[in-house]
Write a structure and sequence with these properties.
Creatine Amidinohydrolase, Chain A, domain 1, Creatine Amidinohydrolase, 2 domains, 6-stranded mixed beta sheet, 10 helices, elongated, binds manganese (II) ion
Length: 348
């Protein structure tokens, strides 16, 4: 944890950091509940919570000084002499912001979300190993779910099977609501499982992830139930080519926007550029969507320690869609794929 706090203060921060969002609370302190705040200086670290969490905070954050939230914000902000409070503007609602700034004795509040998030862009070895294991649970779940997929089962029921499998395999929860989008619904990139019954000839897109030891997994596969027609094969092959070519192009030090372009060019040249509306991928960590991202507008460079999804798709309203997603990591200068599930078109 100290290393992470050192990385935080290695940026231009001249004051005290106040943390209120669960992801950064967990990252900098190891505390696994949301009902806490951190006050960080290079020398002192405080965790502020209430009596429900005192035992847990002492156990999970032994290097932090525990402060009872009932002491009040005047006392808490009095713990630091600094006149500047760097805070997470994306993780503090307006009411809370107003209360805090009134009680902070004239200290200046400086919105600093991206600086506070920044150290999380480069994962350490411990984080890589956890995300690898989380992604392995996803791979096992996909293999399992193929045995249970058949025409006549509802999206919701198959999603529940998948989620149950992940929980039984060690996951503590889900990274996000499981997407099972079949038939025409597969044209919805974020079609959360519905009551729709899966039919013969349907594309079925599974986009799912679990939470494991505080980190997220994320993967997507699209399969066909029954028999694939020629258009389904055509669209699938374009997405597959875009996905595998983009992954093969990845290099430590390349522009993240270039990775997006590799996939986007293939899909555009095939005539479906308008049907690929989202970015190629996003970083994954404690949160399911982190920085940097593979998008046309990204100004980031792919670096050692980055873990991102590569997930091109083609979505045709009224017909259906395909998305294929792996997680990749840049490690020791090499690109490694953390997702092992097969990618050739599976027909069940
Ligand atoms: Mn994703």
């Amino acid at each position: 944890m100290q290393q992470r706090i050192d990385k935080l203060f290695a940026q231009e921060i001249e004051g005290t950091v106040f943390i209120s969002g669960y992801a950064n609370i967990f990252y900098y302190s190891g505390f696994t509940s949301e009902d806490a705040y951190l006050l960080l200086t290079p020398e002192m670290q405080y965790i502020i919570t209430d009596s429900r969490y005192f035992v847990q905070a002492k156990l999970e954050c032994p290097d932090f000084e525990l402060i009872d939230i009932r002491k009040g914000w005047e006392y808490i902000f009095g713990l630091t002499e600094s006149e500047r409070i760097y805070f997470e503007e994306d993780n503090l609602n307006y009411g809370m912001y107003k209360r805090l700034s009134e009680k902070a004795g004239g200290k200046e509040f400086i919105p600093s979300q991206s600086k506070i998030d920044f150290p999380r862009q480069k994962k350490d070895k411990h984080e890589l190993e956890i995300i690898k294991d989380a992604e392995k649970i996803g791979d096992m779940a996909f293999e399992y779910i193929l045995e249970h997929l058949h025409a006549g089962i509802s999206e919701r029921d198959i999603a529940f099977e998948l989620e149950m499998f992940m929980r039984k395999s060690g996951a503590s929860g889900l990274s996000f609501d499981t997407i099972v989008a079949s038939g025409v619904r597969s044209a919805m990139p974020h079609g959360v499982a519905s009551d729709k019954v899966i039919e013969n000839g349907d594309f079925v897109t599974f986009d799912f992830g679990c939470r494991y030891k505080g980190y997220c997994s994320d993967m997507t596969r699209t399969v066909v139930v029954g028999k694939a027609d020629s258009k389904q094969k055509e669209i699938y092959d374009i997405v597959l080519k875009a996905q595998t070519t983009a992954i093969a192009s990845l290099k430590n030090g390349m522009a993240c926007s270039d990775a997006d372009k590799v996939a986007r060019d293939i899909i555009t040249d095939a005539g479906y550029g308008e049907n690929f509306g989202h970015s190629l991928g996003h970083s994954v960590g404690i949160e399911i969507h982190e920085m940097p991202v593979f998008s046309p507008k990204s100004t980031d460079v792919l670096q050692n320690g980055n873990i991102l999804s590569v997930e091109p798709g083609i979505y045709i309203d009224g017909w259906g869609g395909v998305r294929i997603e792996d997680l990749i990591a840049v490690w020791d200068g090499e690109v490694i794929n953390l997702t092992a599930s097969p990618k050739e078109l599976i027909v069940i």
